[in-house]
# Entry
Amino acid sequence: MHADPTQRAAPLWSVLIFTFLNSVGTGVATSGIFFIAQDGYGFTQAQNFALGVLQGLTYVPAALLAGPLLRRLRSSAAWLSERGVLVCLMVGMGLLAAAPALVRRLAEPGAAPAQWPIWALVALYTPLTGLLWPIVESFLSGGKSGAALRRDIGVWNVVWSSALVFAYWGISPLIKDTPEVALLGLGVVQFIACACLVWFPAHAPEHGHVEREPHPPVYKDLLRAFRVLLPLSYLALSALSPYLASLMGRLGVDPSWRTFTVSAWLAPRVIAFVVLGRWGAWHGRWWTALFGAAGLVLGFGLCVGAGVSAGSPAALPLMVLGLVVFGLAMGTIYCGAIYYAMEVGDAALDAGGVHEALIGAGYMIGPSCGLLAIAGVKSGLVPTKGFDAVLLAVVGAFVVLGSASVLARGRKGDAILTAASEHDGHMKRTGG
# Structure
């Protein structure tokens, strides 16, 4: 009996290289785009927040539709495989990334760069990333469970998060004078990524055909907790990204060093991914959710506090410290969210779609809070210097209330686990 070639798993190394290359691209086009827009295209802080809202509005539906769309394609266009979809996505994303450079090339010499290509890029590129990552996650996790799933997800997390550090460092010298070159570079990278797909099977393995290790009931509770924390973390990040792009100017950081400085949160996130990817003692434990919730509140508060104290010598160190704490919390939350999504959701494509959609929801709500704070200042309801306070109050309210619900649930979960452990010990001692 011959093995079904469509059920063959993609070699891990090919998924990791494909992920690294695409993370460089999507990192520039999602988080890095705010620095490119401000310093290269003259975007205001309000425009950057609006750009962030547009990212969320286009990412969420695409991520949720990834599973249904691919099932529809399997039934109506069987000739187009999941690997074929990835090829189409790479070509489309590469061409879109090159478009701003073409527009700049055709413009009159000395003319101010037109802003519309950035709006168009975000509107068209972002939904393609929403389709991309659930498919990649399905190829990564197909047929895996328990320690094997944790190990491969851990390596994958380190790879894509490290790629973002390289992306930030790579675009730093280009942002001010040749921002379109940074975008053109990511387009080239995504064309190169197509080569990795030669080693992918036509379809990710169907997980129903694979015997999986049973997981404890507490995993479902932890999945719910991390599905609260995941959008909260990206809400905070998406509010901070445009805010930090502006704060760097107020703190006197040179444009060529701004993405280097902001990457202070990226390296700690990589460290969290390395530790949690190699060490499985956190599985089924509430402390990871509690640590993530507390670190999210503290890190965000320190970053916004740096803006409140702008002009003080302590402002820049305070911001960097906040970014370090924030990065550790982001890494912890992301690890928990994707592990339990893939474990409880049997690594299915829809589980990855929901995971990515929650990220997109955070990307949408965070900048909306920034726009609300700006509206309050412009309407006169808030003094001009009160922007930071309003932003902290609005986003902080979301983060604190959501984190508090997780902390309360965690205490209850720990109490239940302790009681169950004591009951088991009593039964063993009494022979019951």
User: Anything to note?
Assistant: The radius of gyration is 22 Å. The mean pLDDT is 80.
